[in-house]
Design a protein that fits this description.
This protein has 509 residues and is of the alpha/beta class. It is 19% helix and 32% strand.
């Protein structure tokens, strides 16, 4: 049973309420709200000034003309309610903003540390001196601003809902003063210069959902961003958000709790290049009683972890790799809470890094080594092609011969799917295909392989499959990825990732 979604409502911030409704209801509510808001502010907007000028398309600083200080997210915060303040310019990402058109000449102003957090008038207020803070964008008029050009790269910003201007209260020049909205008056306290952030060579904007950390960044800033991503992704089982969290080479002291659709990567040439003192872990607290069978779709790789307390936990079911090109150092082996399938934990780390099974091996550079690698890859390709042919022909005897005596088999279990169960021997693995045929309609079975990748002894097939369950007459469909490992001419690993939810629904009476 799926968990009941929790409404994203907090405090008295009325602009967010409609977002907790179903799609159709939300559309009607949004339309009605938009109509009422436009009616309410039409008189104010009628005297609004010239049309919006072209704002920078990339990340920019926003500097107040009166104080010379930068628009800043207090303490680099990324949570709802973080104060938008002025602060001495310091080139941090907390002072970098983007402008995205929302229609009719208005924009939302997002902070670089979390592009879903935008400049927002608290409590949807229309009063003077209402505080301005960050809040997750939900389409409210109090989250949209018109940038009115004053020339020379300077603008004043008019709120769509209230018709009032972004303002530094009392024309203060002090640090940490939270901004407000105030009746537009043409003063320097309401005028801001917008300038693109200079981009260093190789410093490419990868988009709001790709987060790159540098060891020079304060640990608290990194932790705040990590926590913000996790809060969004912890229960986001069927959401559309995706995150890549990357660490440049160096040492960090952080707790990386990995939620749904989050990939954590070290950017060095080996796991030794990135060391995390703390944890890179997955928990199952969101699904009582700590049921890890619903934890999937996440991964971590190419970094070393020095776990607090000596252990790191990776409580997952499927599609959730903590691969062997990552290391757990100065601690116990990773405790695997793997409740959906057979899976072997990583080997005990060897203190000699050159011999460790979890260390990155040196890349062969000689011509003979390259030739050997090529021949290994060709042997893998040949076995996989034979496997696919035997599978299509339903040749169980040949499949038994292709599997090793002991197979690392991974396929998420579900009690309502009769052909999915733990397997490890060659005969058990080959029998899965016979059982699948018995429980589905052969004439309706479809499968396509769109990608075939081979790297040494490993091969990955990706494509699309569909079919009909014989007992229920229901159909299933979705993408799949199959990871096979071939050693000594036989398949030793068979990891299949597929749309298990669609299949389970098709099997249910």
């Amino acid at each position: 049973m799926l968990p009941t979604p929790r409404p994203a409502i907090g405090g008295r911030h009325r602009s967010r309420r409609a977002r907790t409704r179903g799609p159709l209801a939300a559309a009607f509510v949004a339309a009605a709200a938009a109509a009422s808001l436009l009616s309410a502010v039409q008189p104010t907007q009628a005297v609004a000034e010239p049309a919006v000028a072209a704002l920078p398309t990339g990340w920019s600083t926003v500097v107040n003309a009166g104080s010379g200080k930068c628009l800043d997210a207090r303490a680099a915060g990324t949570v709802n309610g973080t104060a938008v303040q002025q602060y001495a310019c310091n080139n941090s990402t907390a002072q970098q903003w983007s402008f995205t058109a929302t229609g009719d000449g208005f924009v939302r102003i997002a902070n670089r540390n979390d592009a879903q957090q935008v400049v927002d008038v608290s409590d949807v207020s229309t009063a003077d001196n209402a505080a301005v803070h960050l809040w997750t964008y939900g389409g409210g008029g109090n989250q949209q601003w018109q940038a009115v050009d004053e020339g020379g790269g300077s603008y004043h910003f008019v709120n769509r809902h209230s018709g009032k201007c972004l303002d530094v209260p009392s024309a203060s020049t002090a640090d940490s003063v939270q901004l407000v909205q105030y009746t537009c008056n043409g003063t320097a306290a309401q005028r801001f210069r917008v300038a693109p952030v200079s981009t260093a060579p190789g410093d490419v904007d990868l988009g709001p959902n790709v987060v790159v950390f540098d060891p020079s960044m304060p640990s608290a800033t990194i932790q705040s961003r990590l926590d913000s991503i996790f809060r969004q992704q912890e229960t986001n089982q069927f959401g559309s958000q995706r995150y890549a969290v990357m660490f440049k080479p160096g040492t960090y002291s952080n707790d990386v709790n990995v939620g749904f659709y989050t990939q954590v990567l070290g950017l060095g040439q080996s796991p030794d290049s990135v060391t995390l003192n703390g944890a890179v872990h997955v928990e199952a607290d969101w699904f009582p009683p700590q049921n890890a069978t619903h934890n999937f779709w996440r991964g971590a790789e190419n970094l070393s972890v020095n776990p607090t307390g000596g252990t790191d936990r990776w409580a997952v079911s499927q599609a959730s790799g903590y691969p062997h090109d990552s290391e757990v150092i100065d601690g116990s082996p990773l405790p695997w809470q793997d409740q959906g399938h057979r899976r072997q934990p990583p080997p005990e780390p060897d203190r000699d890094r050159e011999e460790s099974a979890m260390s990155v091996k040196s890349v062969p550079s000689t011509a003979s080594s390259a030739s050997t690698a090529s021949s290994v890859a060709e042997a893998t390709r040949s076995v996989v092609q034979e496997f696919v042919a035997a599978r299509l022909a339903g040749d169980t005897e040949r499949l038994v011969a292709l599997f090793a005596e002991e197979v690392d088999w991974l396929l998420a279990e579900n009690p309502v799917v009769p052909w999915i169960r733990p397997r490890s021997t060659a005969a058990e693995c080959a029998a899965q295909f016979t059982e699948l045929t018995e429980h589905t309609v052969p004439e309706d079975a479809r499968a396509s392989v769109d990608t075939f990748l081979v790297d040494g002894t490993d091969a990955v097939l990706m494509g699309h499959l569909s079919g009909t369950v014989r007992a229920t007459g229901k159909t299933f469909e979705g993408p799949f990825a199959l990871h096979l490992t071939v050693e000594d001419g036989r398949i030793t690993r068979h990891h299949l990732y597929e749309n298990s939810l669609s299949i389970a629904q098709a099997c249910a009476p």
